[in-house]
Design goal:
single chain; 65 residues; alpha+beta; two-stranded parallel ribbon; two-stranded antiparallel ribbon
Length: 65
Amino acid sequence: MDVLLIYPSHGQYRVAEGIEMSIGAFVPPLGLLYLAKMLEQQGHRVRIIDCTAEDTPADAIRNKL
Protein backbone atom coordinates (compact mmCIF):
# COMPACT_ATOMS: atom_id res chain seq x y z
CA MET A 1 0.00 0.00 0.00
CA ASP A 2 1.12 3.55 -0.70
CA VAL A 3 1.03 5.81 2.36
CA LEU A 4 1.40 9.59 2.39
CA LEU A 5 2.14 11.25 5.75
CA ILE A 6 1.78 15.03 5.94
CA TYR A 7 3.44 17.19 8.58
CA PRO A 8 1.55 20.50 8.46
CA SER A 9 3.17 23.89 8.68
CA HIS A 10 3.10 25.66 12.03
CA GLY A 11 2.93 29.06 10.39
CA GLN A 12 5.21 32.03 10.74
CA TYR A 13 6.12 33.87 13.93
CA ARG A 14 7.16 37.51 13.99
CA VAL A 15 10.56 37.79 15.66
CA ALA A 16 11.18 41.46 14.92
CA GLU A 17 9.97 44.11 12.51
CA GLY A 18 10.07 42.53 9.07
CA ILE A 19 11.57 39.24 10.34
CA GLU A 20 9.41 36.14 10.48
CA MET A 21 10.48 32.56 11.06
CA SER A 22 8.92 29.15 11.51
CA ILE A 23 9.69 27.36 14.76
CA GLY A 24 8.75 23.97 13.29
CA ALA A 25 11.62 24.06 10.80
CA PHE A 26 14.07 23.38 13.63
CA VAL A 27 12.26 20.27 14.89
CA PRO A 28 12.03 17.32 12.50
CA PRO A 29 8.76 15.33 12.56
CA LEU A 30 10.21 12.42 14.53
CA GLY A 31 6.82 10.85 15.21
CA LEU A 32 6.07 10.63 11.49
CA LEU A 33 9.55 9.29 10.81
CA TYR A 34 9.09 6.50 13.37
CA LEU A 35 5.69 5.67 11.94
CA ALA A 36 7.05 5.68 8.38
CA LYS A 37 9.84 3.27 9.32
CA MET A 38 7.39 0.85 10.94
CA LEU A 39 5.16 0.98 7.86
CA GLU A 40 8.14 0.37 5.56
CA GLN A 41 9.15 -2.66 7.63
CA GLN A 42 5.64 -4.03 7.00
CA GLY A 43 6.16 -3.66 3.24
CA HIS A 44 4.36 -0.37 2.59
CA ARG A 45 5.72 2.43 0.43
CA VAL A 46 5.78 5.63 2.45
CA ARG A 47 6.26 9.26 1.52
CA ILE A 48 6.40 12.17 3.95
CA ILE A 49 5.61 15.76 3.05
CA ASP A 50 7.08 18.15 5.62
CA CYS A 51 5.24 21.40 4.87
CA THR A 52 7.41 23.38 7.27
CA ALA A 53 10.75 22.33 5.81
CA GLU A 54 9.61 22.27 2.18
CA ASP A 55 7.30 25.31 2.40
CA THR A 56 4.72 23.33 0.42
CA PRO A 57 1.58 25.25 -0.60
CA ALA A 58 -1.81 23.56 -0.19
CA ASP A 59 -2.30 23.29 -3.97
CA ALA A 60 0.90 21.26 -4.33
CA ILE A 61 -0.30 18.85 -1.65
CA ARG A 62 -3.65 18.43 -3.42
CA ASN A 63 -1.79 17.59 -6.65
CA LYS A 64 0.33 14.95 -4.89
CA LEU A 65 -2.77 13.33 -3.42
